[in-house]
């Protein structure tokens, strides 16, 4: 199984930090998947992840400087509120 796995994606990644120490304690352990899948690409996405939370995720997943950050605005001209 692990030899065929190409990518692991966590949507709403901010929940790993927000809930990992209280509400969903299992989220605290999700970074341990890297020990089982060290060569597998990892994607953590969220529309609400401020810089301190990004830093906390990088620390929790032990990314060091070995990651790429793609930051896109959610401000769209065709959406009004």
UniProtKB/TrEMBL annotation:
Gene3D superfamilies named among the record's database cross-references: P-loop containing nucleotide triphosphate hydrolases
Top-level taxon of origin: Eukaryota
InterPro entries: P-loop_NTPase
Protein name: Helicase ATP-binding domain-containing protein
Taxonomic source organism: Lentinus tigrinus ALCF2SS1-6
